[in-house]
Write a structure and sequence with these properties.
The complex is a heterodimer of chains A (113) and B (113). Chain A contains no helices and eleven strands. In chain A, strands 2, 4, 5, 9, 10 and 11 form a six-stranded mixed beta sheet that branches. In chain A, strands 1-3-8-7-6 form a five-stranded antiparallel beta sheet, with no helix packed on it. Chain A is globular and about 40 Å long. Chain B is mainly β. Helix content of chain B is 0%, strand content 46%. In chain B, the strands form two sheets. In chain B, strands 2, 4, 5, 8, 9 and 10 form a six-stranded mixed beta sheet that branches. The model of chain B has no long low-confidence stretch (mean pLDDT 93). Chains A and B meet through β4 and β5 of A and β5, β8 and β9 of B.
Chain lengths: 113, 113
């Protein structure tokens, strides 16, 4: 099925470093969502974006809805060991009443204390 | 409960056996989704229920897979004649009507020997 291009696929950083990851789509999206999945658990919603250009923060996390509506990025500042996990982006285009999200393949983050 | 619950948390079965996976969504969430996540992979959409509308079954990989939902509550995903390739974590998510934010359960880890 259709998927988003999410990059990087994996990251290994030192505690305290900032992290940036992004998602791109070949088509326009109306909504972008960022989720985090801890090992052995289901994904948890971090940030939701509904408007092109929107910049939203949640603690040390900041996400932006790209102005072209075809991309989004997630930044994590001053990383800590509990940031370890897989980060997924998900989006929805203009497909009428279809509430099905399109998912990226995830960015796996490892933090070295 | 406050969140989406799934049972069992782990299931080990022999090739060729049928399995049933259960999902209890958050109360009031009319939308319910099933996803499959293979080891180290992203989320693969399987099926989507929305209220009394016909479910979107476009993600079911074969006719061995089926799902039912009782009203706006419990859903059961059934896999018949399981194959080793069916081994994965099966995630359930639910959401409010007209909302895109999905809330995930912890998943059922299925291992087919």
């Amino acid at each position: 099925g259709q998927q988003l291009n999410q990059s990087p696929q994996s990251m290994f950083i030192q505690e305290g470093e900032d992290v940036s990851m992004n998602c791109t789509s070949s088509s326009i999206f109306n909504t972008w969502l960022w989720y985090k999945q801890d090992p052995g658990e289901g994904p948890v919603l971090l940030i939701a974006l509904y408007k092109a250009g929107e910049l939203t923060s949640n603690g040390r996390l900041t996400a932006q809805f790209g102005i072209t509506r075809k991309d989004s990025f997630l930044n994590i500042s001053a990383s800590i060991p509990s940031d370890v996990g897989i980060y997924f982006c998900a989006g929805r285009g203009n497909a009428g009443n279809n509430r099905k999200l399109i998912w990226g393949l995830g960015t796996s983050l490892a933090v070295n204390p | 409960g406050a969140g989406v619950s799934q049972s069992p948390s782990n299931k080990v079965t022999e090739k060729g056996k049928d399995v049933e996976l259960r999902c209890d969504p958050i109360s009031g969430h009319t939308a319910l989704y099933w996803y499959r996540q293979r080891l180290g992979q992203g989320l693969e959409f399987l099926i989507y229920f929305q209220g009394n509308s016909a479910p979107d079954k476009s993600g079911l990989p074969s006719d061995r897979f089926s799902a039912e939902r009782t009203g706006e509550s419990v859903s059961t995903l059934t896999i018949q004649r399981t194959q080793q390739e069916d081994s994965a974590v099966y995630l359930c998510a639910s959401s409010f009507p007209r909302a895109l934010e999905q809330f995930f359960g912890p998943g059922t880890r299925l291992t087919v020997l």
